[in-house]
């Protein structure tokens, strides 16, 4: 077995279920074309609520990818995660034949911020409307943050280290870091990522307490970070799952190394204290660069957190300047999530998937709906920008105060 220092974590598979595509291919096509799919909320029971615009996953039938016995005991957020895991496993060509003899070599890690709100709401309505005998037995597990990790593990027969990061948005990057640490300790592969389903009525009502939530009803103006018209963020469903493997193990089975998880760091600066997040995010960036042994000028693209709150946007721009120096105003910055919404823990994993694809295809995707940038950042707007990309920086902050940064290196292989 390789020493911990030699066990590099690499991405070999990507699976995406997002508002702009229910496959990695459709997600990337819409992302690189800068298509915005933000629209009026149509989920039943949400019509009268103040949240008017969101990123909904449409055209998704979980029965196409998941067996009925799993569907009846899981919430929509787990349907997304299981479907994305299927796609990622297929993409990595990691099948049961690869781990039948060593099921303890494959683990599962997911992040979740909202849990199974739709399932939980339905069963609670039955409890109060019809009585306890009408509450299904799966209420005890379907709402739980760890449900996606458990169901993916059970369905796939993965018996290696499993975990869940119950956190705010930055938890998506923290889950990837957790997977990398698991691999350094000896696991060969981890199915890792995050997917959220925060658009059930109960979940939306919970979010209405966030001052940073955009209440505008115009999809083109509701989520415009780094602009003078920034007025908050728009939530979204969906997310992504990745297959992260130990590099030597991946190469030994002929897998394509698409990217390297080179460095990560996280800090905490307090709920909605956006001015303080400047120092916390800058520290996370510096530590992630150190972890990756990467100089600031090596960063070729930044996938920004892009909250859409003026104070938060200003803090992020200043954090980049603090951590990257003069390079901060020269490196291309993008936030594809302005076209899909922020899927909470799923958002930075979607950004990570987009960063891997951007490095593979040599193009920086644009930031939809953003034109009049009012910060000293080279935000890519309008159309995609061709560029040689070897190293990407992905940033994420949470409403509860978490900050995270991850450095990705371009892999040696490419998808066939």
Structure description:
By secondary structure, the protein is an alpha/beta fold. It folds into two domains: 245 residues, Peroxisomal Thiolase, Chain A, domain 1 (3-Layer(aba) Sandwich), CATH 3.40.47.10; 149 residues, Thiolase/Chalcone synthase (Peroxisomal Thiolase, Chain A, domain 1). Helix content is 33%, strand content 19%. It has 13 helices and 15 strands. The strands form three sheets. An eleven-stranded mixed beta sheet has the order 5-4-6-7-1-8-15-14-9-10-12, with helices on both faces. Helix 12 links the parallel strand 9 and strand 10.
What's the SSE blueprint?
Elements: E1 9-17, H1 24-32, E2 39-40, E3 53-54, H2 68-71, H3 76-92, H4 96-99, E4 106-112, H5 117-130, H6 139-142, H7 147-156, E5 162-166, H8 171-184, E6 189-196, H9 201-207, E7 238-246, H10 247-252, E8 259-268, H11 274-292, E9 301-303, H12 310-324, E10 332-334, H13 346-361, E11 363-364, E12 378-379, E13 385-386, E14 391-397, E15 402-410
Parallel strand pairs: 4-5, 4-6, 9-10, 9-14, 10-12
Antiparallel strand pairs: 1-7, 1-8, 2-3, 6-7, 8-15, 11-13, 14-15
Helix pairs in contact: 3-7, 8-13, 11-12
Calculate Rg over CA atoms.
20 Å
Q: Tell the overall outline.
A: globular
Low-confidence stretches: none
Question: Could you name the CATH homologous superfamily of the largest domain?
Answer: Thiolase/Chalcone synthase
Largest beta sheet: strand ordering:
5-4-6-7-1-8-15-14-9-10-12
**Which CATH architecture of the largest domain would you pick?**
3-Layer(aba) Sandwich
> Mind summarizing the main beta sheet?
11 strands, mixed
CATH top level assignment of the largest domain: Alpha Beta
Question: What percent of the residues sit in helical stretches (DSSP H or I)?
Answer: 25-40%
Distance between the terminal alpha carbons, to the nearest Å? 29 Å
Number of DSSP helices?
13
What is the strand content? Answer: 15-25%
Overall pLDDT, averaged?
94
């Amino acid at each position: 077995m390789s020493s911990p220092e030699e066990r590099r974590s690499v991405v070999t598979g990507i699976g995406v279920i997002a508002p702009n595509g229910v496959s990695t291919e459709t997600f990337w096509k819409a992302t690189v074309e800068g298509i915005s799919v933000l629209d009026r909320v149509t989920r039943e029971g949400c019509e009268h609520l103040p949240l008017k615009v969101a990123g909904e996953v449409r055209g998704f039938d979980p029965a196409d990818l998941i067996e009925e016995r799993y569907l009846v005991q899981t919430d929509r957020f787990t349907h997304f995660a299981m479907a994305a895991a299927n796609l990622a496993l297929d993409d990595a060509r990691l099948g049961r034949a690869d781990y039948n003899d060593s099921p303890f070599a494959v683990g599962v890690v997911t992040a979740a911020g909202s849990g199974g709100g739709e399932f939980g709401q339905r069963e609670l309505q039955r409890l109060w409307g019809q009585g306890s005998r009408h509450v299904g037995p799966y209420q005890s597990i379907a709402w739980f943050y760890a449900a996606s990790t458990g169901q993916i593990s059970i369905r796939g027969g993965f018996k290696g280290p499993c975990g869940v990061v119950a956190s705010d948005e930055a938890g998506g990057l923290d889950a990837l870091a957790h997977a990398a640490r698991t691999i350094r300790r000896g696991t060969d592969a981890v199915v890792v990522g995050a997917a959220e389903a925060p658009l059930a009525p109960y979940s939306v009502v919970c979010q209405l307490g966030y001052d940073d939530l955009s209440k505008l009803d115009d999809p083109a103006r509701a989520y415009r970070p780094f602009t003078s018209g920034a007025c908050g963020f728009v939530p979204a469903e969906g997310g992504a799952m990745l297959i992260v493997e130990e590099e030597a193990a991946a190469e030994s089975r002929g897998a394509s190394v698409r990217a390297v998880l080179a460095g990560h760091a996280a800090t905490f600066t307090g709920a909605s204290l956006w001015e303080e997040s400047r120092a916390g995010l800058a520290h996370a960036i510096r530590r992630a660069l150190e972890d990756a042994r990467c100089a600031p000028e090596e960063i070729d693209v930044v996938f920004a957190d892009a909250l859409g709150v003026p104070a938060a946007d200003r803090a992020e721009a200043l954090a980049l300047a603090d951590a990257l120096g003069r390079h901060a105003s020269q490196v291309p910055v993008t936030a594809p999530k302005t076209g899909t919404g922020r899927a909470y823990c799923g958002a930075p994993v979607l950004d990570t998937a987009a960063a891997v694809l951007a490095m593979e295809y040599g193009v920086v995707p644009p930031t939809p709906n953003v034109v009049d940038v009012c910060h000293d950042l080279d935000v890519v707007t309008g159309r995609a920008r061709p560029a040689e990309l070897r190293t990407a920086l992905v940033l994420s902050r949470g409403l509860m105060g978490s900050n995270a940064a991850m450095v990705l290196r371009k892999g040696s292989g490419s998808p066939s």
